[in-house]
Design brief:
Blueprint lengths: L1 E4 L4 H8 L7 E3 L17 H16 L3 E10 L6 E2 L12 H11 L7 E12 L2 E13 L15 E3 L11 H7 L1 H15 L2
Parallel strand pairs: 1-2, 1-3
Antiparallel strand pairs: 3-4, 3-5, 5-6, 6-7
Bound molecules: inosinic acid.
The site of inosinic acid has 15 residues, from β3 and α3.
Length: 192
């Protein structure tokens, strides 16, 4: 089976590749000749995931899936949420985003936050969505060099290290994207 993963984020591809069984061949956007920015203009995480997967299905004709992820901080009423990528501006810089969030969180005692990933799948003319959540807290200073995005400032519940201090296999096991992708794999396996 061939399936397009509608992302240009090499970190996401690395994470997802490690979770997808060998009999499913993941195709990149490059592999299908897609070099454009996929629109992401909805105001929910789920809406953006569906928009990206649907765009590829309709324009390129491939069965595909897309993910969208947001970091929801309790004391900020769920922000940055769907705006996580552009939190500090259109430059979409992970460093700037983390710096802004740490500033907003200065002197805040409630540090609860969660990552939420929605994966949208188009398969055999049906659409599915899968949600993965990972609860944790925003720490006060960046720690660790692995991963990407907000990983250095997010410590998952029950762990002493941030996502950026973990091996990929552990992040995948307990993390938001891993949980959503596991459900996707379950569905794909049930169709085989
Ligand atoms: P998107 O899903 O690519 O739109 O990601 C939204 C924002 O969340 C971007 O700033 C990403 O860097 C960040 N992000 C997505 N997934 C993760 C993750 O697993 N860890 C940390 N940050 C992430």
């Amino acid at each position: 089976m061939q399936l397009v993963f509608a992302t240009n984020n090499s970190n996401k591809i690395k994470e997802v590749q490690a979770l997808i069984p060998d009999h499913i061949k993941l195709l990149s956007l490059e592999a299908i000749g897609c070099y454009e920015d996929i629109p992401e203009t909805q105001n929910t995480i789920e809406g953006n995931a569906i928009q990206k997967a649907t765009y590829i299905k309709e324009k390129y004709g491939y069965d595909c899936f897309a993910d969208d992820t947001g970091l929801e901080v309790e004391v900020l009423n769920g922000q940055p949420g769907v705006f996580s990528a552009r939190y500090a501006g259109e430059q979409r810089s992970a460093e700037d985003n983390m710096t802004k969030l740490l500033m907003e969180m200065q002197n805040k005692t409630n540090r609860n936050a969660q990552f939420k990933t929605v994966v949208a799948l188009h398969l055999n003319n049906k659409q599915y969505t899968f949600t993965g959540i990972c609860e944790g807290e925003i720490i006060e200073n960046k720690q660790g060099g692995n991963g990407f995005g907000y990983d250095p400032i997010f410590k998952p519940k029950g762990f002493k290290e941030t996502f950026a201090e973990m091996e990929l296999s552990l992040k995948n096991k307990i993390g938001h994207r891993g949980k959503a992708i596991s459900q996707l794999v379950g569905l794909l396996n049930s169709k085989n």
